[in-house]
Write a structure and sequence with these properties.
Blueprint lengths: L1 H20 L3 E4 L8 E4 L23 E5 L3 H10 L5 E7 L2 E6 L2 E6 H7 L2 E6 L5 H13 L7 H13 L10 H15 L10 H11 L14 H6 L15 E8 L11
Antiparallel strand pairs: 1-2, 3-4, 3-7, 4-5, 5-6, 7-8
Helix pairs in contact: 4-7
């Protein structure tokens, strides 16, 4: 009884700390091999923590690249989403990527992304075949020139903060999902689905290819949400299946912030 009480007290204490740090959690019920376990969302992503550096030829079409750069905008996004990443990119194959940036949707060489960013980490959606990757590529390239979803980004900022109420420690998953869905419908209703910000664009490409990564609306999802959809983490927004870590194309310890370029 004393052991059980101590375990419960430890979970409550951990939950209080997590509430203050705004981390999503998941409570795993006891099994015959393990006791009650509180899992915590993790933002650890450096190669030294079980990861590895890879070359570009390790990528496959459809891989998702999450990045960060030493600029004020990137730092603001990472701070607001409690995450080490601030941008999401879709790898199209043959050394080419597509992304949604402030000037709109564009395609460009992967090498430019690796040169510019401080960190580039790749994740893979299991089960993407050649036909699915081709559908994604065709749709992504058809969207080049589409305007950036500025309104969606502006609306997403308060949503990211307010939805933390739905992620309080020990809140049941069904309750959390209902809470988040309600907030999203109220706060993101004016966001457009014919313009894209970065993670919205990546998710929409998968949806258009008939392989949705999540059942949630792409307008709800930030680069941080994609990071937490990886295997072994605790997602804020549920994925249809966990993303597999492929490796880091680049990793530099964050330097002092630089001013944003043009």
């Amino acid at each position: 009884m004393r052991i059980a009480f101590r375990s419960a007290a430890a979970i409550v204490a951990a939950g209080t700390a997590l509430l203050l740090s705004a981390c999503a959690t998941r409570l795993d019920l006891p099994t015959k091999d393990t006791g009650l376990r509180l899992r915590v969302q993790s933002s650890v992503i450096a190669p030294g923590n079980g990861g590895e550096l890879i070359a570009a030829d390790a990528l496959a079409p459809g891989d998702i690249l999450l990045t960060s750069i030493a600029t004020v905008n990137s730092f603001g996004i990472r701070l607001g989403t409690f995450s080490p990443v601030s941008h999401a990119v879709l790898y199209l194959g043959n050394g080419q990527i597509a992304e949604a940036v402030g000037t709109g949707v564009r395609a460009r060489p992967l090498s430019e992304v690796v040169d510019e960013e401080q960190m580039v980490v790749a994740f893979r959606v299991p089960g993407v075949d050649d036909a699915g990757a081709a559908r994604m590529r065709e749709w992504a390239l058809s969207q080049v020139g589409t305007s950036y979803n500025t309104v969606g980004v502006l609306l997403n900022a308060p949503f990211v903060l307010n939805r933390r109420l739905c992620e309080l420690p020990l809140v049941p998953t069904a309750v959390s999902h209902y809470c988040m869905s309600g907030l999203a419908m109220v706060q993101l209703g004016a966001s457009r689905d014919d313009q894209f910000f970065c993670s919205q664009f990546v998710l929409e490409a998968y949806r258009q290819a008939g392989m949705p990564i999540t059942n949630a609306d792409p307008r709800w999802v930030s680069p941080a949400d994609l990071l937490h959809m990886r295997e072994g983490d605790v997602p804020s927004i549920a994925a249809t299946q966990p993303l597999r870590y492929v490796g880091h194309l680049k990793y530099n310890p964050p330097p002092l912030l630089a001013a944003d370029g043009p």
